[in-house]
Amino acid sequence: MALKKGVDVKPASGKLGILLPGMGAVATTFIAGVMSIRKGLGKPIGSLTQLGHIRLGKRTDGNSPAIKDYVSLAKLDDIVFGGWDIFPENAYEAAVKAGVLESKDLEPIKAELSAVKPMSAVFEQAYVKKLNGPNVKKGTSKMDLAQQLMEDIKQFKTKNGCDRLVAVWCGSTEVYRKPTDVHSSLDKFEAGLKASHDDIAPSQIYAYACLKMGVPYANGAPNLSLDTPALLELARKQSMPITGKDFKTGQTLMKTILAPGFKARMLGLEGWYSTNILGNRDGEVLDDPESFKSKEVSKLGVIDSILQPEKYPDLYGNISHVVRINYYPPRGDAKEGWDNIDIRGWLNYPMQIKVNFLCRDSILAAPIVLDLALFMDFAARAGMSGIQEWLSFYWKSPMTPDGLYAEHDLFIQLMKLKNTLRYTKGDDLITHLGAEYYD
User: Which end of the chain has less Cβ packing within 10 Å, N or C?
Assistant: First the structure.
């Protein structure tokens, strides 16, 4: 949906419910973090909505308000948390089990965190082969399961007195699938739900149920979910904003920072070898080759999109790009990523860059969940529907309208995001051209 410059955005009044399909390490780290920040016990480091500023007008004007003061975003105190998981543990128990946050950070919010209990989940073993849990819905068909989710959403909104809802998928990576005929239209998809079609994954059932209930939806995994004609049709029909897919956290974040630098300086790239070890639930799931395939496709697309080998064949036309992920339980959520990068400089002389990123996956993902929830709620109140390409900043595999390539350059993505916010307020876009250099 085309956005008009200077939008009358509905106010962020009342409570915002954030629904999280999958309440494991990422979701509980996010929930616990927001609760801690609300109590003044922590800082929202990594969150653009909470810490970012946006320049307005000329640099000489010195006008750079905080983003959260510039546009209408829900306040952290107005957020209510809910979600679904195949394991019945409450958010405190799940956070302890995930092992991301230390007890000194969890104990002060134990009572509040313990009150967040997952609803029973839609789950199919064929799509996540390495996990199995007891807190699972039973239904006569996949449509019945979707209707149960819709009833969950309705009851959650009523029980918690929420004015608005938004959903961010924080569940596991499903096995790799390509769209089939059942995904080609909304009518065929709904018929497939009634017939419990094998090609309809649990993540697609969540997306369908949320959109049907008027809940903006973000897909945090590389699953085939929103990016099908059927669900795009549903988003348009419901005038709902959607975005995805696959949170840009560790190794891929580094690629979208480094690769634009190589291209900006016209340095050649011969090869990029990436390997990871991680031991949380995500690592266990990705130990299955079919789930890893979903992640691999998501990770491999970044380099080509940034470097445009078709335009620069001498520099980037024959890159050897390899990605590996290995499940290593002792590492837990503290994922380690190694990158070996073979670059070429003047007269084709070789150079190498080594990166060893000892990152914490859920610590990097939690602020992304917050920003996406707040920005998607903003988009809904601004009347923005369909694919929210301006949120590409957060994704490994950004969704784009038909015919457009995905922009992966982190800095172009950030400029697009901020210019979208300026546009909604009717302010001038920042292009770094014009009289501002001379005034």
Answer: C
DSSP 4: P
Which pTM value belongs to this model?
0.92
What are the pLDDT digits (tens) for 71-84? 999 999 999 999 99
Radius of gyration of the chain (CA): 22
Give me the long-range contacts of 235-239 (CB less than 8 A, separation at least 24).
Answer: 235/211, 235/385, 235/386, 235/387, 236/1, 236/385, 236/386, 237/186, 238/211, 238/212, 238/214, 238/385, 239/1, 239/383, 239/385
Phi, psi of 85 (to 5 degrees): -160, 155
Please report the domains of the chain, with CATH numbers, ordered by start residue.
15-247+362-425 (3.40.50.720), 251-358 (3.30.360.10)
Provide the sign of the torsion angle of the four alpha carbons 391, 392, 396, 402, taken in this order: positive
- Going from the C-alpha of 58 to that of each of 51, 54, 67, 321, the distances in angstroms are 21, 12, 17, 41
pLDDT tens per residue, range 360-417: 989 999 999 999 999 999 999 999 999 999 999 999 989 998 888 888 889 999 999 9
φ, ψ (nearest 5 deg) of residue 388: -95, 80
Round to the nearest angstrom and report the end-to-end CA distance of the chain: 37
| Helix extents (H) in 171-324 | 186-194, 202-212, 229-238, 251-264, 281-286, 289-307, 313-316
Give Cα separations from 287 to 104, 128, 290, 332 (angstroms). 31, 11, 9, 14
